[in-house]
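In the current project phase, we have settled on a layout for protein records. One protein thus recorded is set out beneath this paragraph:
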Amino acid sequence: MCPHRIVYSIFAVISFSVAADALCVNVPRVSLRSGPGPKYEETWRVGKYTPLKKKGESKNGWIPVADMDGKNHWVYGSSVTDEYECAAVKADFTVVRTVASETGALAPIRYVDRYWAAKKVRFEDDWMFLEDDFGNRYWIKESKLWRPVVYSQISF
């Protein structure tokens, strides 16, 4: 096998494993549970685009996940997706901008609180362009956000 194909194959596997751990809520509201089923205690109710980290194999359609605080829950599989990336504010609050710049104009909502979640549209430098569940788009400094990303490193 060609050495280049081996390297490309390795990167493809790593990219897949990273994406497989990150989930986003894809419904307006979902109840996270203490166990794999609707009869288990509700541990938290979250909104659309809330990012979650997959923690293991699903059981009866329920997936074990962790939130940005590291707390473990179960979520029903059809309530989440890995088709796109999401992020949530990890600071108590953060400034929301109309452009990717510390000196850029503030967005009409100005600030968002901890746990505010949105779908990633794109990156620019160390800023993330996000879309909320109403379709509004904002720039937020990446250091203020949490995403369930697993970083893998390869040394040659």
